[in-house]
Specification:
By secondary structure, this protein is an all-alpha fold. It has helices at 2-80, 89-117, 123-136. Helix 1 crosses helix 2 (89-117). The longest helix has 79 residues, at 2-80. The protein is elongated.
Length: 137
Amino acid sequence: MAESETDERAGAAGIAEAVAEISERASLLIREEIELAKAEVGVKLGRLLRGAGIGAAAAIFAIFGLVVLVEGLAWLAWYLLPVDGSKIFWGFFLVAGALFVLGALAGWIAARLLKAGSPPTPQMAIDEARRTKEELR
């Protein structure tokens, strides 16, 4: 009888050790998975930041290119306008006027789109709620 109790205690101790080892390995696995996720997020964030920096540089180049293009258009307009050769400013005024017209047109279109989209109400959901309320009455 004493021998069976010892065997039971040894078996229970072995099970307890196995459970503790499984628990320890599971927590180690979870910690390693968390570290892996952190590393992956760090790599992706680094790529995003590099991409944003290169995109900002591209935007700066594009803006300066647009400035040079507009100035070239102003010189071309002066060249094509039938004015005295010393009155260079007319080409710049013509391009500035065209830019103001384009800006006003873009602003008008933007105002119409914003007015049509605001306030954003979920009209279909409201209608469905009204129908449901009427059916319950």
